[in-house]
Structure formats: structure tokens, C-alpha cells
């Protein structure tokens, strides 16, 4: 099957068909281009979606911890990789399919134009041969008619008796001339005819089949190129299927990694305060004054009965109300005496036992936000700590359990940094030894500044670790002893009100606000413990300042780094230790700024 033999007379049809083939090729190239744009837009939208829902992590505290969150972020990462694969598909199609199609379409147009021009030239040459043959034919025909006319004129004159001999001779010469010219035109026509037949045979059996064959081959190559592009179009998608499958498998694994038990445990670890639940509320019986016995019929009996009040009745009166969002108003009671520490008085003067509800009152004080009050000396110390950054540095603003975790995390980070610095120091020492043995490799003295800087960093990290370990041991000691304290009752519910810090925040130690056992000689409140010290306290140890402290606030004691002071009162859990200089000057210093050494025979006095 060949276009040259089967379609020898369909030049115009082949012209239209080859033009349609190129148009179809360009149309498919346009389709691929639009598909590439779709893939690029799809990948861009996926990346924007991932970027929109990915967390903006400015600190480690904002990193996802729950397994459901981690799984979602893993899915976002896999989706981002999936978007990258869509971009790979677009790039592969653009390079392998669309670019190749556009280049081939340009070459195809050039080749088609060349073949069609050759066909038109061959047709024009055949037309020219035909015109020459036709002209010689017409000329031969005309000369033959003229020769016939000349013959008829000669025969008429030859048969005419009246015609002269000269006229007959002239007609004969004219006949011979026309006959001779007809013979020449006949030969010319025969030659032109033979030439045209040869060119025509060559045109339809050699030239045109060759040109049509080239057009056929061109069209077949176009079809093959389309087939290859179809295959490349599919291969571009198929190549990324394994990676896309891995992305989808990653999403499935992320979904399987969700652990609801672990998330629940993380919630516990994140919000556990370390406090004990409040105890039971005591029963408050207000009906004792209403019901009377039958024997209470006289006035004297009622007066006597008014002096006997049930202890349960007075519990509620003495205890009052627990205010959830504010400080409980202070009761109008007389100064505490040794008797009033464990008893309460009614309006008529009778006394009765009171029972502490310290666990409940303590937990209620933990969550309430008190109104501003006149700050005590201890509150001034805490305010100074906030200014110095100690409250944030030692996480004292957090509940015990959260504070312990934060301190442990910081210690772990400091230990990792210390290990890095130690490794760097070891490497510098080795390099220094190599330089000392081989001076041509380097100057050992050039490593001294780096070694000094590393040593300073190591010392600084060790001091930080020591300071944080001291805070951690302090928290762990309080956490371990809180259970015992929470189950014990206090001396009076009025004393438990001192557990609340003046700022309305919680305190970790029950002895922070009431130092020492209840005094038997009079009433002492929080201000008395902090300011009223008539006799100088004995020294129970000594300390050495690790860091300098300015001591601008009232009641604090300034100290220099390396200065030795006497310890006259231990840290009660608020981060301050009472110290004294040799000249007798006393004040509070931050416990984390000193290295304390207590005397064995005086510790706890």
C-alpha cells in the first residue's frame, strides 16, 4: 500500500490531510500544556495548604507532643512530598512530551512544506510540457489546413482552362510550401508529443510516487511520535506512583501511630500540679440552738444551757465560708492566746474545740485570685525575685510537678551542652598536643583563647547545672513531704489563712508563712515573723557567695562573689536564706546565689 500508486491523483487531498495531522499534533500539545498547568496549580495549592496548617514553631514549647498532632503533621509532610511529586509529573510532561511535541511540529511543518513544493514544481513542469505539446499540435493542425487549401486552389487552377500557366505555377509553389511546412510541424508535434508522454510517465510513476512516499513517511512518523508522546504522558505519571504510594503509606502509618492512651498520659504530665485532693468537709450542725429538751423550762436553765455549746455547732461559725474567687474576710477575733489556738469563743464567752480544714482551704487558696492587699516583707522578696528573673529562672511560678519537669528538662539540656563543650575541649587538647609535637602543623598558642573560652563555658554550665539541681532537689523534697503535711491538721483554721501568699498565689510549704511552732506568749502574724526579731539569732552554718547580689530591696543583704556569711535561718522554701555579716548586718539573700554549709550540731535549730 503506497500513496504514490493509490493516490496519484489526490495531491490536494494529501495536502489537506497532512495539514490536519499537524493541527492535531499541535492540539494535543496544547492539551498537554493545560494538563501541566493543572498539575503545577495543584501542587502549588497543596503546598499552600500544607503551609497554612503547619505550625509556626517559635519555641520548643510549641512543638507538637500529642500523637494525634504528630500524626497530623506527619501527614502534612507526606502531603508536601506528594505535592513535590505532582511537580515532578509536570516537569516530566513539560520536558518529555510538550517540549518534544513543539519541536517536532516545527520540523514537521518545514518538511511538509518542502515536499509539497516539490510536488507543485513537478506538476508545473508537466503542465509546461503539455502546453508545448498542445501548441505544436495546434500549429501542425493549422498548417495542415493551409496545405489543404493550397492543394484545392492548385487543383482548381490546374483544371481551369482559362487560367494562365503562371497562375498554375504559382499555386503549385504555394502548395509545395504549405506541404513542406505541414511536414515540419508534424515532426515538431511528434517530438513534443513524445516528450510530453515521457514526462507524464515520469511524473506519475516516478516523481509523484516519490513525493507522496515522503509525505506518507512523514505522516507515519507523526503518528509514531504521537504514540510515543501518549506513552510518555502515561510514564510521567507512572514513574511517581511508587513514591506517591510511599507517601500514602506514610499517611497510613501516621494514622496508625495515634495512641489515645499516650495522649491521655501526656495530658496528665502536662497539667499535673502535684497537689493532693482536698479532704472532706465537716458536718456543720446549725440546729443545736433550735431544739430544746423538755427539762429546759426555767430561765436559769436556759442561761446555763447558753454556756454549753456543742463543738460541732461552733465549727461552722468559726470556720466561716470558703471564698473561691477572693480572700475570705478576716474574722473579728481577739488576739490568739494559748487557749484560743485550739478553742474558739462564742459571743456569750463560752469556748469550744475547733477542727482544721486545712487541705480544703489550701486547695481553695490555690485557685482563687485575691484582690490587691498590703504586701508583706515576704511579698516584697517575691517581687524582687520577679524583677531579678529568678521566678522565671527557677520556674517557681509553676506547680511542683510541672516545675520539677521543667527543671529536669533544663538539666538534661545543660548536660548535653556540657558534653559538647567537654568533647570540644578534648579535641582542642589533642590538637594542641599534635601542634606541640609537630610545630610545622600549627602554633599551639593559637588554640589557647579557644581553650580558655571552652573552659569558661564548662565552668558556667557546671554552675548552672549545680544551681538547677539544687532547685530540683528542693522541689523533690517538697513533693515527697507534701503528702504527710496535707493529711495533718493545722493548729487553727485562722492560721491556715496565712498559707496564701499576699499576691494571691500559692506557696509550696506550709511553714513559709508561719515560721516555727505556735508561740505560747502572744499573737504573731506574718509581719511579726518577718520584722520582729528582738534577740540576734545564733548562727547555724556559713555560706559562700557564688554570684554577686546587689540587695537594693529593703530587708535584703548585698554580697560580693566569694564573700563568706553566717547562716542564721535556713531557706523555708521561698528561695531566700537569712544571713549575717561579721559586723552584725543581717538580711535575706537568694538561696541559689550561695553555697550553704550547715553545722551538724546546729542544723534545724
From TrEMBL:
Molecular function terms, GO-annotated: lipid binding
GO cellular component: cell cortex; cytoplasmic vesicle; cytoskeleton; plasma membrane
Region (Disordered): 476-539
Residues of the F-BAR domain: 1-263
Main location: membrane
CDD domains: F-BAR_FNBP1L (cd07675), HR1_CIP4_FNBP1L (cd11628), SH3_FNBP1L (cd12072)
Coiled-coil segments: 130-174, 404-438
Topology term for the membrane: Peripheral membrane protein
Residue ranges constituting the SH3 domain according to the UniProt record: 538-599
A Gene Ontology biological process term: endocytosis
Annotated Pfam families: FCH, HR1_TOCA, SH3_1
Cited PROSITE patterns: F_BAR, REM_1, SH3
Compositionally biased region (Basic and acidic residues): 476-490
Keyword terms: Autophagy, Cell membrane, Coiled coil, Cytoplasm, Cytoplasmic vesicle, Cytoskeleton, Endocytosis, Lipid-binding, Membrane, SH3 domain
InterPro entries documented for this protein: AH/BAR_dom_sf (IPR027267), F_BAR_dom (IPR031160), FCH_dom (IPR001060), FNBP1L_F-BAR (IPR035494), FNBP1L_SH3 (IPR035493), HR1_CIP4_FNBP1L (IPR057871), HR1_rho-bd (IPR011072), HR1_TOCA (IPR057870)
Occurrences of domain REM-1 (ranges): 397-474
Compositional bias ranges of the Acidic residues kind: 527-536
Protein localization: Cell membrane; Cytoplasm, Cell cortex; Cytoplasm, Cytoskeleton; Cytoplasmic vesicle
Record PANTHER family: FCH AND DOUBLE SH3 DOMAINS PROTEIN, FORMIN-BINDING PROTEIN 1-LIKE
UniProt record similarity statement: Belongs to the FNBP1 family.
Protein name, entry field: Formin-binding protein 1-like
Species, as recorded: Myotis myotis (Greater mouse-eared bat)
